[in-house]
Amino acid sequence: MPMSTSAEPGPSAAAGALEAAGDAAYAWDLDDDRLDWSGHPAVLGCPAAACATGRAFAERIHPDDSARRQRLLGAHLDGGGPFDCEYRVRDGGGGFAWVHERGQAQRDAQGRAHRMLGVIRAVGDRKAQHSRIEQAASYDELTGHYNATRLREAVDRAILAAQRGAHAAAFLSIGVDGMAAINSSFGAAAADAVLVEIGRRLDSCLRASDHIGRLGGDRFGVLLSHCAPAHIGSTAEKILARIGSAPVTTPSGKVAAAISIGSTSFPRRGTTSYDVITRAEAALAEAKRAGGGRHVHSPAEDERERDRRRHAIDERVRRAVKDNRLAFAFQPVVAAADGAVAYYECLLHLREEDGSILAAGEFIPAVEQLGAIRLIDRYVLDRALDELAAHAGFTLGFNISGLTAADRPWLRALSSRLRSDPALAARIVIEITETAALYDIAESARFVSALRTAGCRVALDDFGAGHASLRHLHSLPVDLVKIDGALVRKLAANPDNRAFLRHLLALAQGFGFATVAEGVESEEDAAILRREGIGFLQGYHCGRPSFERPWCPV
User: Where are the domains of the chain?
Assistant: First the structure.
């Protein structure tokens, strides 16, 4: 960036003070790009003569910082506020050192900037500490790749770039197959070693322009910034082959590495990072259901068709809300020891205009993908609180989507109701799925803490399905965990599930969480769960969902 000089300043108390402080002062003549230095120019990492022009000095600035400095400087010269910037300059050894520059333009009678005066100070130690803090805020502690927040930001930027440049891009959601079994059989250290090695192998088979991040406990995300839909399949197959090319050496021995991949393309498919990542995650879930070790692509669709579907589902849900055709079925969660009801879970159903009834699993996934879930979650909150306020002596639990964990209006609505009736809080159990919680672990932890501060209890639903790591569980101060029903059914005939259940219970109990087993369908399974130390049971064996209110007199 051009810099210039004024007449050589003579010795002065100010110049001596600058030199004693280790700071360098400059006068930069903007018309002829001449720089004059005083104070302690050694802070620049080279003799002052080597930076006698603004252009020469700019060539010593780190390429990653140069554009930002130029933008801030340009804004100042165009009449903005004081110029203040931190960046890296090349030192005498060929490396880079952090400096802090502050300056002020001098202007002629017409307001034109013709001269710049400023000071540059070395801030290496302080900036290094700041960089470590920045590293922790942006990168996954275990693998060193982007964390979920930083990856979503990269996807949002890529969407804008793809739209401006009219080129295609893609996102891959990569899930580690069998991570729960690895945790159970080999331990947490082995599971971490597998994740680190998979991250390293991903690095080795992708381009420098691609971005890798950790989406959750057992999931990575890969942003392919320039990738035509026709090339996604071959890229995914290359990744599958590379990850499975050799076992991973861990502290507990060699462990086979295998993954599944879900992908989607954009910008046509989704306008935000949440849209894009949600679709890739849905494709990953399909790959897992098909047995794992494979790639499933969610193909791009015509923008008008996508808008038509969004509008149709939005109208359908809004009509159901307006016509009061959304209703709860209530299923009991009972104490394993004596069968006493601890609380009832509200299971949302939609009555179609023709009288048919849809369970939540038949319409909520589409609602989540197409953007109407906040409306549903607010409806569920209002109806559940109305039910609790109208009747005493029971507790209700209800599910919320991952999006609601970042939805401040929803939290404000809950807080407002609790202020007018604080006793309701102790009768509320709010359930958030493990996968949704891990989508943004920091935001989810803040959300859970806010709910518990308000007096509500929080449950981590589908525990064991998303395979949260120990550090993730430590970050989520929930009250109870609900073990995924797929791990509970037919326990008597499945020794592997019994072993994994034992591992999950030990994990939950180690963190002080109460435990609920979902999907309990037989007394045989219930007896096994009691022997293993489960706290609560839920399933057809304990009580089927019913639209009747057990707390209301007949």
Answer: 13-132, 141-301, 327-347+373-537
